[in-house]
Amino acid sequence: MDYYFDKVAILEMIYIFFYSKKSFKNINFFKRSLVLFLIFFSIQWIDITRYFSILDYRSTGEIFFELRNIAFFLDASLLLDLVGISFFSIFFIFSITLLYIFLDYEKTKSIYEDQKKIAAISSALEIQESENRYFKEIQYLVHDLKTPLFSINTLIEILSIQEENPKKLEYLGKISNSLERCNIMISEILRDTNKNYLKIRKIFDFIFSYLSIHNCIHSIKLCNYCPDSKIKVNKIVFSRAIINLILNSYDAIQNKENANITIKVKDYINFIIISIEDNGIGMSEEVLQQISTNKKFSTKNSSGIGLNFVKTVIEEHDGKLFVSSKKNVGTQFYILLKKGEVNEKK
Question: Can you point out the beta strands (E) in 157-247?
Answer without folding.
Answer: 196-199, 220-224, 230-233
